[in-house]
Design a protein that fits this description.
Layout: H1 5-26, H2 32-38, E1 56-59, E2 63-67, H3 68-79, E3 90-93, H4 104-114, H5 116-129, E4 132-134, H6 141-148, E5 155-158, E6 172-175, H7 178-185, E7 190-193, E8 196-203, H8 212-223, E9 231-236, H9 238-241, H10 245-253, E10 262-265, H11 269-277, H12 281-289, H13 298-302, H14 304-307, E11 310-315, E12 322-324, E13 332-334, H15 338-345, E14 351-357, H16 364-379, E15 387-391, H17 395-403, H18 406-412, E16 416-417, E17 440-444, E18 460-464, H19 467-476, E19 488-489, E20 495-496, E21 518-519, E22 555-560, H20 567-570, H21 583-586, E23 605-606, E24 613-614, H22 616-625, E25 630-634, H23 646-653, E26 656-661, H24 666-674, E27 678-682, E28 696-699, E29 711-716, E30 722-728, H25 733-741, H26 744-753
Parallel strand pairs: 2-3, 2-5, 3-4, 5-6, 8-9, 8-11, 9-10, 14-15, 14-17, 15-16, 17-18, 22-25, 25-26, 26-27
Antiparallel strand pairs: 1-7, 4-21, 12-13, 19-20, 22-28, 23-24, 27-30, 28-29, 29-30
Helix pairs in contact: 1-2, 1-12, 3-5, 3-7, 8-10, 11-12, 16-18, 16-19, 25-26
Bound molecules: FE3-S4 cluster (F3S).
The site of FE3-S4 cluster (F3S) has 13 residues, from helix 6.
Catalytic activity: citrate = D-threo-isocitrate
Keywords: Iron, Iron-sulfur, Lyase, Metal-binding, Transit peptide, Tricarboxylic acid cycle
InterPro entries: Acnase/IPM_dHydase_lsu_aba_1/3, Acoase/IPM_deHydtase_lsu_aba, Aconitase/3IPM_dehydase_swvl, Aconitase/IPM_isomerase, Aconitase_4Fe-4S_BS, Aconitase_4Fe-4S_dom, Aconitase_dom2, Aconitase_mito-like
Length: 754
């Protein structure tokens, strides 16, 4: 059903030659991360050594995975490329659009009713273009990928930041925006700045209450939420080998919480066991043949300071369980010290909910360790003080855990078993126990705990811990409970202590599933009709953008953004997520979060044609309707934040011809280029100050648009006075071709047709 062993064998067949060449070019032994990167160059065999943290390099990923929220726009765009099939193996997973409320069956039924239009669309596009489709209820994207597709030494991209989870099986797996995924689906290279490398040496082995989750909670405390930015975190050492494969997945998963590009581990026996257990003995056999290439060189791990940009060492023998939070995953506190901290900060000590699962922690080992605690509560007659919710990561995990009596243990504690989906981890949680925005505390085994993340309530204090610690805390109902030292009073009035958790790494009787929820696409999908209702609120087929051309004259200033303007300011999330597949509807959020430099208000700009003030999308729509291009002006690092392609597509859709700023966040700049519009920077930063509210713009030499040649802009002020300034750009020849064709996808389509 799932993986493509021939593709994997192909990757392995060229690995030795490419890695050996990279070793020769760099003149040094290689880390695992470098081996994977150099063996996935778009050009094939390496011809030069790259500088980490500096060079932009084209790569050829082996796989793509998309979740249902991000896949909508990605697939709508892919449909524009005019390709009969995706160029690399791709899967779509329906996991984000399912709300947790009453339990799996009624929740899934409701999701299938409310989002059926989106699911049907994703299913039919997948069928048409050769994409594997995982239905709602099949599981969470990263757990399903780990169980079915991840393989040691591979490279994948996914339209979700926790794609990095696949590092648990020795991949370089990276979260990207939809536009990047579309490029690769359409057969183009994927560009990435060659990452820096952080080495984490693990010694000793986990014991007692400490789990793999505590490794990353500790790393998050050391690196903080930005400490991994632009870097791959590579784990090695005896301690790494002592971890289970799914434990490694948990650690890699939360690498996203320290901003890391991705995290990975070298191939070892735990991965081999996991591959065999998940019915992939042939992948394990193939990996065994190139084993030395699937881990870092011995010399690198013997002297890591020489080969990594930064090295951290953690002794697992001494590591203690942590709970991180509230409101940020890097606020790490060892269990036992939280009571005092909570009192100092006014965090509620009473715990209302314990939530177990998500893509981070729903392996067989996780569930058995947490169940071993839950069972003690039943056996020792302790009544759980908090509510329990469980989100299995996949149908395979759920079915197996059910067969083996694990779910029954939680049910005996009155736990609610939610759908195999993201649920409370992404705010899809309709909590009935709160009336308003009461201050309360929850503990969960997820990865993120930002304000409002789980239930939309800014006063929910969420703490992140291992599943077994979440179980213990939820049973006690108190944040200051330390199961290693404290006792609980049972129904007979006796003081009882919880024993250490016991887990089973892999199901002794093997994994099982009746219907995994996978739909194999047709071999030839040309006859499949993808229908989108013209009345749909949530989906809209895209029409190719018309080229803007070389005559931009009389363009009007739409907004001069003041200060920080991130992709969230440009295209807000929250309730707008609903319209991710409908470009016209979601464009109603365009730049509504940006502060206008004139008047310092948000979503309040002057319409120069009417003299009236209005919201940014409304004014833009009016200009567009009257055939007038508009221009957005911005400050430094414009478009920082995420790689969300909507932030570029919306201005393009509403008639913005150029975005002119002091500096860009690079991904957003590239996204603007891909949509066939101008992303330019002031040659002299101070020229930002020349821009007035009633300005009109004339591009004087756009007909000579060429690489490395600044453009000239005439600014006509309301009093008729003029300034002529220079604008820099970073367009190369192919990006200028995107501009000339109207978008990168238009160009791909044209090349396909010829
Ligand atoms: Fe879903 Fe939460 Fe993971 S939203 S993909 S379970 S981080």
């Amino acid at each position: 059903m799932a993986f493509d062993i021939d593709m994997i064998k192909k990757v392995y067949a060229t690995m030795a030659e490419r890695v050996d060449k990279a070793r020769e070019l760099t003149g040094k032994p290689l880390t695992l991360s470098e081996k994977i990167l150099y063996s996935h160059l778009w050009e094939g065999k390496p011809t030069e050594a790259f500088t980490r943290g500096k060079d932009y390099v084209d790569f050829a990923p082996d796989r793509i995975a998309c979740q249902d929220a991000t896949a909508q726009m990605a697939l709508l765009q892919f449909m524009q490329a005019g390709k009969p099939k995706v160029a690399v193996p791709t899967t779509v997973h329906c996991d984000h659009l399912i709300q947790a409320k009453q339990g799996a069956a009624p929740d899934l039924k409701r999701a299938n009713e409310t989002s059926n239009e989106v699911f049907d669309f994703l299913g039919s596009v997948s069928n048409k273009y050769g994409i594997g489709f995982w239905k709602p209820g099949a599981g969470i994207i990263h757990q399903v990928v780990l169980e079915n597709y991840a393989f040691p030494g591979g490279m994948m991209i996914g339209t979700d930041s926790h794609t990095v989870n696949a590092g648990g099986l020795g991949m370089v797996a990276i979260g990207v925006g939809g536009a990047d995924a579309v490029d690769v689906m359409a057969g183009m290279a994927w560009e990435l700045k060659f990452p820096k490398l952080i080495g984490v040496k693990l010694t000793g082995s986990l014991n007692g209450w400490t789990s793999a989750k505590d490794v990353i909670l500790k790393v998050a405390g050391i690196l903080t939420v930005k400490g991994g930015t632009g870097a791959i975190i590579e784990y090695f050492g005896e301690g790494a080998k002592n971890l289970s494969c799914t434990g490694k997945g948990t650690i890699c998963n939360m690498g996203a919480e320290v901003g890391a590009t991705t995290s990975t581990f070298g191939y070892d026996d735990s991965m081999e066991r996991y591959l065999r257990s998940t019915d992939r003995a042939d992948v394990a056999d193939a990996a065994n043949e190139v084993r030395e290439y699937l881990t870092g060189d011995d010399e690198v791990y013997a002297n890591p300071e020489q080969y990594f940009d930064e090295v951290i060492e953690i002794n697992l023998d001494e590591l203690r369980p942590h709970l991180n939070g509230p409101f940020t995953p890097d606020l790490a506190t060892p269990v036992g010290q939280l009571g005092e901290k909570a009192k100092e900060n006014g965090w509620p000590l009473k715990v209302d909910w314990g939530l177990i699962g998500s893509c981070t922690n729903s392996s067989y080992e996780d569930l058995t360790r947490a169940a071993s605690i839950a069972k003690q509560a039943v056996d020792k007659k302790i009544k759980a003080k908090s509510d329990f919710g469980i989100n299995p990561g996949s149908e395979q995990i759920r079915f197996t855990a059910d067969r083996d009596g694990i779910l029954k243990i939680f049910e005996d504690l009155d736990a609610t078993i939610f759908t195999n989906a993201c649920g409370p981890c992404i705010g899809q949680w309709d909590r009935s126990d709160l009336k308003g925005e009461e201050k309360n505390t929850i503990v969960h085994s997820f990865n993120r705990n930002f304000s409002k993340r789980a239930d939309g309530n800014p006063n929910t204090h969420a703490f992140v811990g291992s599943p077994e610690m979440v179980a213990a805390i939820a049973i006690s109902g108190r944040l200051d409970f330390n199961p290693m030292t404290d006792t609980l009073l049972n129904e007979d009035g006796e003081e009882v202590k919880l024993d250490e958790p016991r887990g089973i790494e892999l199901p002794p009787e093997g994994f099982a599933v009746e219907d995994a929820g996978y739909v194999e696409p047709l071999v030839d999908g040309t006859g499949v009709n993808v229908s989108v209702s013209p009345d749909s609120e949530r989906l809209q087929l895209l029409t190719p953008f018309e080229p803007i051309g070389s005559e931009i004259k009389g363009a009007k200033l739409l907004i001069k953004a003041f200060g920080k303007c991130t992709t969230d300011h440009i295209s807000m999330a929250g309730p707008w997520l609903r319209y991710r597949g409908h470009l016209d509807n979601i464009s109603n959020n365009m730049l509504i979060g940006a502060v206008n430099a004139f008047g310092k208000k948000t979503n309040f700009v002057k319409n120069q044609l009417t003299g009236e003030f209005g919201g940014v999308p409304d004014v833009a729509r009016d200009y567009k309707a009257k055939g007038v291009y508009s221009v957005v002006v911005g400050d430094h690092n414009y478009g920082e934040g995420s790689s969300r392609e909507h932030a570029a597509m919306e201005p393009r859709h509403l008639g913005v011809a150029a975005v002119i700023v002091k500096s860009f966040a690079r991904i957003h700049e590239t996204n603007l280029k891909k949509q066939g519009m101008l992303g330019l920077t002031f040659a002299s930063e101070n020229d930002y100050d020349l821009i007035q509210e009633d300005d009109t713009f004339n591009f004087l030499d756009l007909n000579e648009f060429a690489p490395d040649k600044p453009l000239t802009l005439e600014i006509v002020h309301a009093d008729g006075s003029k300034d002529v300034i220079k604008l820099n750009h970073t367009y190369n020849n192919s990006q200028i071709a995107w501009y000339n064709e109207g978008s990168a996808l238009n160009l791909i389509k044209k090349e396909n047709a010829s």
